[in-house]
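We emphasize that the prediction below concerns an isolated chain of 72 residues; any contacts that depend on oligomerization or on bound cofactors are therefore not represented. The input was used exactly as deposited, without trimming of termini.
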Amino acid sequence: MEHYTFHVVGMECRGCGYLLEREIGAVDDVLRSAADHEADIVEFTVPDPETGSYVEHLVSDLGYEVTAIDVE
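Result of the prediction step, given as a token string:
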């Protein structure tokens, strides 16, 4: 399992965080997702690193910028 924390630019409100949480949570293999618009972070857990890369592209496609990625 890998736990990702994305630092995201563009989450202006709670609705932005909810959108990202919902869309990431809908991706196959995402076991857990959470977003905090005040801290500008999105966290999720996946079993496969390829899914992490896919989620990064998804976040960008939704109009947000991933500025840093932490993986544990």
